[in-house]
Amino acid sequence: MNILACVVISFLAPAINGQSQINVQLNQRGLDFVRNVSLTTVEDQSKGFALSDVTGTFSFQTGDVTSDQSLVGMTLDNLDFKDGTLKPFAPNILLLNASMVTAVIVGLYDYRLDFFGNTIREADGQFTADVDMELLVSVELLQVENQFLSQLKSCSVRAHSVQIRTESNQPSIDVNLAIGIQPSFTRRIEDEMCDSLAQNLNQQLNSFIRTAGLSYALTLGISVDMSLFSDPRADTTSFLVPFSGKCFPDGQRDIAYSYERRQLPDVQSSTAMGHMVVGDYVIRTFMHSLYLSNALNVEIDLNDVGLPIRLDTTILSFFIPGLRSLGLGRPLRIGIVLAKPLDYRQSNEDLLVDGEIDMTFSVIENNGNIARAFVLNVTFSMSGNIVVNGTRFGANIGSLDFNIALKSSDIGNINIAPINQLLSSSLSGAFLPIFNEFFDFGIEIPSAFGFDFKNVEFQLHPNAVEFRGDIVGRQS
Hints:
Pfam families: LBP_BPI_CETP_C (PF02886). It comes from Clavelina lepadiformis (Light-bulb sea squirt). The chain is α+β, with helices and mostly antiparallel strands. It has 7 helices and 23 strands. It folds into 3 domains: 1-21 and 211-295 and 445-476, no CATH class; 34-186, Bactericidal permeability-increasing protein, domain 1; 296-444, Bactericidal permeability-increasing protein, domain 2. The strands form 4 sheets. Strands 2, 3, 4, 5, 6, 7 and 8 form a 7-stranded antiparallel β-sheet that branches. Strands 15, 16, 17, 18, 19, 20 and 21 form a 7-stranded antiparallel β-sheet that branches. A 6-stranded antiparallel β-sheet has the order 11-12-1-14-23-22. Helix 2 (28-46) packs across helix 4.
C-alpha cells in the first residue's frame, strides 16, 4: 500500500550480478544493545540447566584414608554476567568476552570417609556451589541458504574459583569435597556450561540478526524478495550486511528488471545505533510492481473529492456540450489507470516521480449503469520529500505539474483547452491532497531482524536513501 514500505521491508534478495541495494549496519552502540538484551535473556533462560553427575573415590595422605564422593542432580540456579563486550572482527566474526560471570549451582552431595577400610563418617544432603568464571565465545556471520545468521565457531569457559558449601554444618566435609571432587566438578562446569551458554547465546544473537524467510508479502499484491546478496562484513567497530532488494507482483518472483544497480554510498558518521542505506533500485522495482499489479488503479466519484462546487453533467456541459447527450444533472465518475510504470529518481534534496495515467470520465445513469464519456491522457511530474515522524515514515508531495490530452471520446468532438484550465485547479487543489493522503501513510518502520528502529532520521543521496536511528527489541 506504499512505495516506501518496500524500501525498509525489502532487506533481502537473491545474489545476482551488480551491487547490493540495501546495506544494514550496526555500530558498536548497536552491538552493545544486542549484547545486553542477549545476555539478559541467556541469564533468564539458563536457570535450571542440568549438569551431569560427578562421582569419584579420592585418597588422602598415604592412601590409608579414602573418600567416596558424588555430586548429583545439579542445576544452574542463577547466572549473572557482570560485564561483557561484543566486538566485531574482520572478516565476519563477532566475539563475546565476559570476564566476570558468576553462577550458583545447586544439587545433592553424598560423602563417605573410610579409614583403613572402615567407614568412619557418612553424610548426604544439599549443596550450593558459587562459581566465578570467564566466558569467551566467537560466532561467524554467514549466509546459509540465502539467509543471514550467526553460527557458533568456538567457546571457552574458565572457572577462576569454585566454592562448594554443604548444609551439613561440618566444615571438614566442605574441605574434603574441595580437596577431592571439586577439581572434577570444575572441569564438568567448564565443559558442559561452555556448550550450553554458547549455544544459548548464539540462539539469542540469531533472534536479532537472523533474517526471517526469503520473501515478505506486502499489501497491494506486491511481495519482496528476501534473500542475502553476499557475505556479511565486519571491522573493528561495526558489522554490515549487504542485501539485494527486488520487489515483484505476487507470483512473479523471477521477473527481471532493466534498472541499474548502482553502488551504494557509505553510511554517514553518526551516534545512531544502526544505519540502513536503500538504493533507488528498490523503489523503482516497487513502483514497477505497482503498475504490473494494478495497485494504483482507482475510481473516484467527482463529488467525493471535496471540490467547492458540484461538478455534474449540467456544469460540465458548458465546457463539453456532448455531455448533454448522457443527461443533465447526472454525477460523474473518474477511473484512473496507470498507463506505464512510474519513473522514480532522486537528488540530494528531493524525490521526483514522473508518470502517465488515463482518466476515464463516465456518467452514472439513473438506473446505476455507467456510460463512458471520454478518456484523457495525463502526464505528470511530482516532487516531494520523505517525512519521518518518530518511527513512522511517509512521503509528502510538494508540487504537481501535468499535461492533459484527449485520448478518445464517445460524445463527439471535445475542446480540450477549457478542460485543461478546469482540471488545472482541480488537480492541484483537490487531487494533490489525495496523493499526499496516499503517500503519507505513516507506516511504522519495520525490520527483517529482531529489532525495530526508533528516533529515525534520514538523508537523501543521489541514488539512495539512508535511514539511521537507535534500535529497540522487537515487541511480540
